[in-house]
Amino acid sequence: MTNKSVTRRGVLKSGAVAGTGLALPTIFTASSAAAYTNEPTGSSVVLGFNVPQTGPYAEEGNDELLAQQLAVEHLNGEGDGGCMNTFSSKALKGNGILGKKVEFVTGDTQTKSDAARASAKSMIEKDGAIMINGGSSSGVAVAVQGLCQEAGVIFMAGLTHANDTTGKDKKANGFRHFFNAYMSGAALAPVLAAEMGKERRAYHLTADYNWGWTQEESIVASTEALGWETVNTVKTPLASTDFSSYIAPVLNSGADVLVLNHYGGNMVNSLTNAIQFGLLDKVANGKDFKIVVPLYSELMAAGAGENIKGVLGSMNWNWQLQDEGTKAFVKSFGEKYGKPPSNSAQTCYAQTLLYADAVERAGTFNPCGVAEALEDFEFDGLGNGPTWYRGADHQCFKDVLVVRGNENPTNAYDTLEIVEITPRAQVEYDPEHPMFAGGELGKCNSGA
Amino acid sequence: MLGLNKKDTSLLIVVALLTMLAPFILNPFPEGSAMAQFNAGYPDLMQRFVIFGIFAIGFNILFGLTGYLSFGHAAFLGVGSYSAVWMFKLLSYNVVPAIALSVVVAGLFSLLIGFVSLRRSGIYFSILTLAFAQMSFALAYSVLSNPKFNLTNGETGLQVYADDPQILQGANAPDLPHLFGLPMRSTYTMDLGAWSFDFNAGYYLCAVVLMVVFYLAIRIFRSPFGMMLRAVKSNQQRMNYTGLNSKPYMLAAFVISGMYAGLAGGLMAAMDPLAGAERMQWTASGEVVLMTILGGTGTLIGPVLGAGFIKYFENIFSKINDNVLHSWFSFLPDGLEDAVVFVIHPFIGKGWHLTLGILFMLVVIYLPGGLVEGGQRLRGWFRRKKKGADDAPSGKTEPAE
User: The domain containing residue B142 runs over which residues?
Assistant: First the structure.
């Protein structure tokens, strides 16, 4: 069986194998000629749209994808131009970006950090994507943002609400247009005080992961600043589908407000459970019992149906806003797809235009030039009024909406009504705020 | 060569050639052509092929040889990844200590879980391992990531921050995983006419590791120890009645396969310095079972093929969207083009699970031995064809082999 004798052929063979093995690493030392990662050399440029197409946030992902496709159309001068007509910066001409036709590739994040990174990597390595946009979860956003920083491309985050994305996990190559948990708290608190009074006792149910914690922290801080008392904060496992056992103790805790720091399917289930227990009909401490859902989305509202009537929450953007940018986007989206866009769709659309505009203004696709053009950029006309892309942490500052589940919806998309548009000044914070401290932007990486 | 018989040596050489020439083999279509969509020769996917190949080889040592179906192997992969990233955070970005620790930690972890789970066999063993893996997932996802004791960084995934100690990180060392200064990310792109081939340092590290562990797996398969494990598969009770205590063998097999998984996890972190809890989820454990069955349980090369097959579908098919389809079928008349796209649509993009599921069913029904059996049948078919021309059957019964 074993052949131990040394033959001339055997020596030659193993020598050749060993030689190839030793020589291999030397070919890696050659440096590449491109000035930065995926420098577009042809007549077109590739953008990567990385959204959840399967898993719990698939619906949001598909809505994002529709908006991204619309943005590409508008950039290439097709369709009615949408927000390009209302955008305050006029650098975009409808001939692509820097004269190059915009093409795109899509990928599925599966709402898993690993899968999202794999899909973003394949877009960067295989398809030559120069920018990654989209996503519907903070964990994924942070993971992909880290990858883009290492690879030397720009990341334009989609829906990500945790403070960490532009807090302790912020990166020089990553930009967030969406609002965050701190802003939700700052916008909601005054409305809550006005509607429910300053002497309330709140009970929190929180999805047990990073986003849930940062949101709970933000809401607790801003409501306690008003004079509210926090009775208890309970973490619920992310995979829960039945929250009855978490709702039951709320009744006897002496609380008169329930705050649900849940998102997506979690929120739909916990809210439904709370309504089934008749919480909203109860009177505690002499006051009507109330429920608050700090982060809303249209798709969740549709999922929860009747149950959201009268429940307060906050949003980044809503299609019912009346500014010119919103109207142009809703018109163009509605005409193409026959429904109003969700706020995650809007954020991805705006991010794609913002990126393209920054490239035009910088005159280069080089991520460092683009980042510089985006930093401290003031603009208007993409919805939400005047907006500021802060350079210190790459977070957008704009008005935040406080919304309420519509008591008498007139159609399937009219599930939420805008209670208040909280002005930008009220939700601004210092980049070194304790909830955001601990991270470093670092230097921009162009991959060269 | 190397203590292997001729057949195994040639198998090892085939694997070596396949892994070393993968950049060429996986990029058969010129860049820019319509078929370039099917090219898989980019660094990330090649690394994944090899890493999941290692994972599946290890799983096959347990499942293929002993027949014990572990439904929690992803836990060891996850533990390996976390230990590797912790090494990056504490020591330096050099991948050697990271990979070494990931193997050790995964080995210890599997010793613990194996010791408990192996008290039962069959379905009870599977459920026990599944339970342990889900427990690890839950621990990593929320329990061990609370702000007071943050071991795993939860949903976000463990990653290296600028303020981590990294006590051995030299001043000039690259700021990303590297092997004694050679960054894992560095890629040399060779342009040959319309073709373009990527040679990635990280991939070749994984490929060399794969060859080493593949060689080890061959040795285990052919050793008396491997024979003992096969005996467990065929009849463990009889083995116990003959007075042999099979438990130490089982535990050894379990730990070895756990270490393989840990190695895969460590390599994954070395290629991409982030460890997410999803790596431990039961779907990830199920994936490696699928890989092994799809490729061919109990065969040496099968799991590697199965791993490549599944990863190819996950990464290539999921990226075909309607736009791509329209560009392929643009030569058809408009109405027909839309019809064709409409028919194919459910099977691509987000429907890649469906396509994979159908193929998996076809393989399990028609090729119970997996892809390896498919290959053997093909080879047999060709041989018979060639033989049929020059020698007619001799008419008398001949012993097989």
Answer: 6-19+39-280
Name the packing angle between helices B43-66 and B247-271 (round to 10°). Answer: 180
Of B39, B278, B353, the CB nearest to A113: B278
Which one of A43, A70, A121 makes the best mutation probe of the B interface by having the most chain B beta carbons within 10 Å?
A: A121
**Residue A412 CB: number of other CB atoms within 10 A?**
9
Instruction: Say if the Cβ atoms of A106 and B42 lie within 8 Å.
Output: no
CATH number for the domain that contains residue A95:
3.40.50.2300
Q: Three-state SS for B285?
A: helix
Chains A, B: CB contacts within 8 A come to 137
Structure tokens at A108: 């599925």
Measured from the Cβ of residue A194, the count of other Cβ atoms closer than 10 Å reads 11
pTM: 0.86
Round the average pLDDT of chain B to a whole number and report it: 89
The series of mean pLDDT values per 10 residues for chain A, 448 residues long, is 59 61 46 74 92 85 94 93 92 92 90 87 91 90 92 94 91 95 94 91 90 92 93 86 91 91 89 90 89 90 87 93 94 94 94 96 94 95 92 94 90 89 93 88 86
B158-191 per-position pLDDT tens digit: 888 877 888 888 777 788 899 998 888 888 888 8
Asked whether the ipTM of the predicted complex exceeds the cut of 0.85, the reply is no
CATH number at residue B211: 1.10.3470
CB distance from A109 to chain B under 8 Å? no
Using the 3D structure, point to which of A294, A315, A336 is the last residue of a domain.
Answer: A315
Same domain membership, residue A122 and residue A48: yes
- A271 with A327, same domain: the answer is no
What is the secondary structure of B98-131 as a DSSP string?
Answer: HHHHHHHHHHHHHHHHHHHHTTS-HHHHHHHHHH
* CA B360 – CA B306 distance, rounded (Å): 10
Q: Is B265 helix (H, G, I), strand (E, B) or coil?
A: helix
Q: Is the confidence at residue B397, as pLDDT, over 80?
A: no
Which of these three, A398, A415, A438, is where a domain ends? A398
* Residue B381 domain flag: no
pLDDT above 90 covers a percentage of chain B that reads: 58
> According to the model, what pLDDT value does residue B31 have?
81
Segments in B242-319 forming alpha helices (H): 247-271, 282-295, 302-316
pLDDT over 60 at B263, yes or no: yes
Cβ-Cβ contacts under 8 Å, B323 against chain A:
104
Q: Which of A32, A237, A238 sits opposite B189 (nearest CB)?
A: A32
Q: Which residue segment(s) compose the domain that A236 sits in?
A: 182-315
Judge: A113–B274 Cβ closer than 8 Å, yes or no.
yes
Give the nearest partner residue to B279 out of A28, A114, A138, using CB atoms.
A114
Does A107 touch chain B if contact means CB atoms closer than 8 Å?
Answer: yes
